[in-house]
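Allow me, if you will, to draw on your knowledge of protein folds for a short while. I have a record of one protein: its chain in single-letter code and its fold written as discrete structure tokens. I remain grateful for any guidance, and I place the record below:
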Amino acid sequence: MKKRFYSFWLLSLALVPLAQAQTEVFGKIAAEVQQNSQAYSRLDEACRTIGHRLTGSKNGAKAEQFTYDLFKSYGFSQVAYQPFEVESWSRKSASLAIGPAGGNLAPLRTTSLAHAPVKATVQAQLVDVGNGLPEDFAAKAEQVKGKIVLAQIGLLPGTAKEVKNLHRSEKTALAIRYGAAGIVMINNAPGDILLTGTASTTGKLISIPAVSITNNDGQALRQRLQNEPQLQAKIAVRNRSGLIKARNVIATLPGSELPNEKIVIGGHLDSWDLATGAMDNGLGTFAILDIARTFQALGLKPRRTIEFVMFMGEEQGLLGSRHMVRQALANGTLGQVKYMINMDMVGNPTGVSSAQASTEAFFKAIGQQIMAVDQAYGNTFTASAGLHSDHQPFMLEGIPTMSFNSNLDRRIYQCYHADCDNMDLIDREHLQASVRRVAMVLFALADAPTLPAQRLDSQATKDFLIGQGLKQPLQIANDWRWGD
């Protein structure tokens, strides 16, 4: 026992100089970001001069060029486009009308969910399926055939805490599976916020029209259905679809000792077209851009290579991140990716959200050093894994993934995918806090003598996903590859 304690004491002494050196780097990062951060001004510039950043649109191409040029201006010699061709979708028009059978139908404010058909008009009885989960559809299996279903995008108030929600695309997939003719989804954000988002699990067109309505309208419609159970709905949508070209943008900082081991830090540059996407996901991608600038300004050269990635096509089905993983599998380089950090709507982070619970001690130790130069950092840690963002394709290949625990007012996140996602949501100090804190964690991870988690093999990945409760949604999305 004494020998073991003595060995641990010697190891602790050996790590002291490393920790001190890292704390010095953290201090330099904090000072550089405080004095010279461009994150807020560059995001503001993009929102003003580009607008939305829909994949495949002219605006999307402008955003790709904008970030490519920024990486170059920050001194990166290795900046590359990673082009891909995909089926794209964009909206033209959508209408929803509600009324009694045989009577006049009154219009209700609506917008298409992405990947709704190019052209469709349906009128049918409206059937409320509550949360739109498998048990909700199963309970009304006969009632929903040929009908238009009404479902909550989130979970209804009063739903049991242990109930796990599904993505809107998975609820739409269930509606199609049960023979519904259309789907109307109610926004969970209170008030009159209208949002969009994909209703497709594959990034391809779905077979039924899918639209969304505001929370206020949705609550009123549910109340009306209690008194008029035969209420009719009419949905008409017109959209565009076709092959388009888009580009991920990748800036590479070569590792000083382990150049063939890569840490990928990425976020989706694309946004929906109802607003400018300042929060979703300008908040994450413009933090990444400024982290990259900070590394270059300070001449930081950690042991491992860092790839700073602007993904396109996330909103339409993780198109850019799926392409990056597929290409790395094809050319045999995916094994070089040791960690993936996802910066989707990260703001004013207080700690780490890791898919691997076993990494807590590692990230808590880093957090202690961050707090030495940034006392407002909370050093929180959560362990969970989810889907529907750019970490997913990496996670399904067993690669360790992580993000951050954000500390922003909930009202900000109510505007995600919505017509209120504009620059007035963004706080300069919170954005700068993201840059400096994430930069510190990134440096520590990329420079660590040993990484806190390793890639899982196929069986271990399967077990992990089952343990996280992700098998069912992956099966609904036809993204489960391990059989029954």
Q: What stands out?
A: Residues 37 and 89 are 35 Å apart (CA to CA).
